[in-house]
Design brief:
Blueprint (H helix, E strand, L loop, with lengths): L3 H35 L4 H11 L8 H15 L1 H6 L3 H16 L1 E2 L3 H7 L4 E8 L2 E8 H24 L2
Antiparallel strand pairs: 1-2, 2-3
Helix pairs in contact: 1-2, 1-3, 1-5, 1-7, 3-5, 5-7
Length: 163
């Protein structure tokens, strides 16, 4: 039988990973929406633009979307960037953070047993063909999740500027 503390830790890590991925997916969608709505006037044009530009097979990745959004903000809404000078850097930060969660796995029970009660957890991931581990401090996770929520609010601000 598996130790209930290991099961609890596994569940907490799964929920944390899911939250990070869900928030960054929301941010990614908001960036796509912001960019697409800038170049389309009606719903059908918007749908066509989005399906061509942001489809999963288009090769437009998170970092590329950030770069496009940055250019759009520089041209159309420079006052937003002046008011929020760390915004683009924060997008890149959470993009990197998202990738650590999206391409990782929860380690085996023996590894989890070693970190019960610690102020961090470990995720494994494949890097350069080698399975490696990354340590995440719980307080760092809280900070990043708050940053992601803040970015969601900032994206809503941008969308209001477009109206």
């Amino acid at each position: 039988m598996v130790d209930p503390k290991i099961l609890d830790l596994r569940k907490k890590i799964q929920l944390t990973s899911a939250s990070a991925i869900a928030l960054t997916s929301t941010i990614e969608y908001q960036m796509q929406l912001t960019i697409a709505s800038q170049f389309t006037d009606n719903n059908e044009d918007y749908k066509l633009f989005s399906s061509l530009f942001f489809s999963p097979d288009s090769g437009i990745f998170f970092k590329r979307i950030i770069k496009i959004l940055e250019r759009l903000l520089e041209k159309k809404y420079p006052q937003f960037l002046k008011k929020n000078p760390k915004f683009i850097k924060d997008l890149y930060t959470i993009g990197d953070y998202r990738n650590k969660f999206a391409h990782s796995f929860i380690p085996d029970n023996d590894t989890l047993r070693k970190i019960i009660g610690k102020n961090h957890f470990i995720l494994g991931y494949l890097e350069g063909g080698v399975i490696t581990q990354h340590k995440f401090a719980w307080n760092e996770i809280k900070e990043k999740l708050l940053l992601m929520k803040n970015i969601v609010s900032k994206m809503e601000e941008i969308q209001k500027l477009q109206k």
